[in-house]
Design a protein that fits this description.
mainly alpha; Rna Polymerase Sigma Factor, Chain: A; 0% strand; globular
């Protein structure tokens, strides 16, 4: 892939990639930015051998996910900031909406890494089970299982928060 094409691809995919990493990093924007930089470096180095695919965004998400996994293997969990994650709600919502959604983000942040990743990719990034399977390098059945467990855990967490 040519340098200009790579830069254009990053410009298009930057917001969803950063949003995904911020969710994986439980709202730690510095950690997400560090992983993003590392992932884009890896992607750029791999770009000469990249064959144009139908979904280059999924290729970049996979690199981001792998960088996240590598980082987590070498570090312990970090705290998260639910308000920072709630700020990712699209424009047009009031500050009351931010506070209303904060508990949802806190619940998502409490999920195990693989469940959180599947939930974020499926619901926030609108990826198919097949795409998630490729991104996370796991079978489709595992993606479905993580989504099911993640939904159940979110339901339980949110139910407990409302009582």
């Amino acid at each position: 892939m040519e340098r200009d094409r790579f830069i254009q691809l990053i410009k298009v995919e930057q917001v969803p990639l950063k949003r995904y990493l911020l969710g994986l990093c439980r709202g730690d924007s510095e950690e997400a930015d560090d992983i993003f930089q590392e992932a884009m470096t890896r992607a750029y180095l791999a770009s000469p051998s990249f064959i144009e695919r139908a979904n280059p965004g999924a290729w970049l998400l996979k690199i981001c996910y792998n960088c996240f996994v590598d980082r987590m293997r070498s570090r312990k969990h970090h705290d998260y900031d639910g308000l920072e994650m709630a700020a990712l709600i699209p424009d047009g919502h009031t500050s009351d909406d931010t506070f209303r959604y904060e508990f949802v983000w806190r619940a998502v942040c409490n999920l195990p890494d693989k469940e959180r990743s599947c939930i974020l990719l499926f619901y926030k990034e609108d990826k198919s089970i097949k795409d998630i399977s490729r991104i996370m390098n796991i079978p489709s059945g595992s993606v479905r299982a993580y989504l099911t467990r993640g939904r159940k855990a979110l339901k339980d967490i949110l139910k407990d928060d409302q009582t």
